[in-house]
């Protein structure tokens, strides 16, 4: 790996908002023997990172512009190495300037799971994804990952309060509703902390999994990994905010995952008895957080396209919550107070 921060011809102090693109192109030329092929936008995500696809010889590679003020590039590089070492198909890092936030990485292609999943191939593709997930969870967690602990979990639930309830919907819960939410949050956090702890990708879903010819799937956007509950990534995958499936099929996949986890010793029969409840409540926490993040992306970051995923995301909260007596009040709150208000908000727009 090359770290151009050691080169004498530029320093961090010389970088301004107006010359960052020029600096990025200069760095790319230094990695490409003085050439700079045409850059094509590769993808857009919910961060400040920008991705460009370009040719290097007979292959394509991805150039990443990830401002170090907002992105943990050192963590991304460290995790990429660790995950590749356990056999996961994550991008190889060809070069990195960590001071300025420039990376050159392997291209895992353009076939996202989201665009290629259909009823006929879903068993195979989810089977591949769950096998990769088991490999991630069964290996020792890479050193230095943050703990997905109680304060972390509660901060995420606070995103729902701040950005969806207060921000997008301008809804101030009544005292009884606030008390219900607080009790529910306690239950969700308690369930998450009771689970076996593994390496958690945190965004293991159809937009971050790539359909590849070998070692399927390719795995992206893993830089926010933590050590946390064993069900988090599975519920992210199977109750995806971007695509949904009949619940009977989801339960079949959950059963297949559980069989694998028991066979490899990741979970025990004692864990299996509690697994469905853990999974459902973990999904509630994740979907509340995700709903808040979608609202934040729209309101703060000018990304209103993410609002289209709110009905599905809150729909999970409503449907799964209705199965558990302790969560029925939350399910009712979503159905009666949030979804009608959300529909009106989406109809009128953000203007």
SSE diagram, text form:
Layout (H helix, E strand, L loop, with lengths): L19 H12 L8 E4 L6 E7 L2 E7 L7 H13 L7 E5 L4 E5 L6 H4 L5 H17 L11 H19 L6 H19 L3 E4 L8 E2 L7 E2 L6 E4 L2 H7 L8 H17 L5 H31 L10 H12 L6 H21 L3
Antiparallel strand pairs: 1-2, 2-3, 3-5, 4-5, 6-9, 7-8
Helix pairs in contact: 4-7, 4-8, 5-6, 5-9, 6-9, 7-9, 9-10, 10-11
Can you describe what's shown?
By secondary structure, the chain is of the alpha+beta class. 49% of the residues lie in helices and 11% in strands. The chain is built from eleven helices and nine strands. The protein has a five-stranded antiparallel sheet, sandwiched between helices. The chain has a two-stranded antiparallel ribbon with strand order 6-9. The N and C termini lie far apart (47 Å).
> How many beta strands in the DSSP annotation?
9
Order of helices and strands: HEEEHEEHHHHEEEEHHHHH
Into which percent range does the helicity of residues fall? 40-55%
Given the helix and strand composition, which structural class is it?
alpha+beta
Count of helical regions: 11
Q: Strands of the biggest beta sheet: in what spatial order?
A: 1-2-3-5-4
Briefly summarize what is shown.
With about 350 residues, the protein is α+β, with helices and mostly antiparallel strands. Helices cover about 50% and strands about 10% of the residues.
Descriptive key words:
two-stranded antiparallel sheet, globular, 11 helices, 11% strand, alpha+beta
């Amino acid at each position: 790996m090359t770290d151009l921060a050691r080169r004498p011809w530029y320093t961090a102090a010389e970088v301004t908002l107006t010359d960052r693109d020029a600096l990025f192109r200069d760095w790319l030329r230094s990695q490409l023997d003085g050439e700079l092929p045409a850059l094509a936008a590769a993808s857009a995500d919910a961060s400040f990172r920008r991705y460009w696809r370009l040719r290097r010889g007979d292959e394509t590679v991805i150039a990443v512009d990830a401002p170090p003020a907002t992105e943990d590039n050192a963590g991304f590089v460290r995790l990429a190495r660790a995950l590749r070492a356990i056999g996961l198909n994550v991008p190889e890092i060809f070069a990195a300037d960590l001071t300025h936030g420039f990376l050159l990485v392997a291209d895992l292609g353009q076939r996202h799971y989201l665009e290629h999943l259909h009823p006929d191939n879903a068993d195979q593709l989810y089977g591949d994804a769950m096998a990769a997930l088991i490999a991630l969870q069964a290996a020792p967690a890479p050193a230095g990952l943050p703990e997905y602990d109680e304060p972390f979990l509660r901060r995420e639930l606070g995103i729902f309060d701040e950005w969806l309830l207060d921000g997008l919907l301008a809804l101030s819960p009544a005292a009884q509703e606030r008390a219900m939410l607080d009790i529910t949050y306690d239950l969700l956090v308690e369930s998450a902390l009771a689970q076996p702890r593994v390496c958690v990708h945190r965004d293991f879903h159809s937009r971050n999994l790539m359909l590849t010819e070998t070692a399927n799937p390719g795995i992206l956007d893993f830089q926010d990994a933590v050590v946390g509950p064993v069900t988090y990534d599975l519920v992210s995958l199977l109750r995806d905010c971007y695509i949904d499936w009949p619940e009977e099929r989801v339960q079949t996949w959950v059963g297949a995952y559980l069989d694998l986890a028991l066979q490899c010793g990741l979970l025990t029969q004692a864990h299996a008895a509690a697994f469905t409840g853990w999974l459902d409540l973990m999904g509630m926490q994740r979907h509340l957080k995700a709903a808040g993040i979608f609202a934040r992306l729209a309101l703060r970051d000018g990304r209103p396209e993410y609002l289209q995923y709110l009905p599905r995301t809150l729909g999970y909260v409503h449907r799964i919550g209705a199965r558990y007596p302790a969560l029925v009040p939350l399910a009712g709150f979503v159905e009666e107070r949030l979804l009608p208000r959300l529909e009106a908000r989406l109809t009128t727009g953000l203007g």
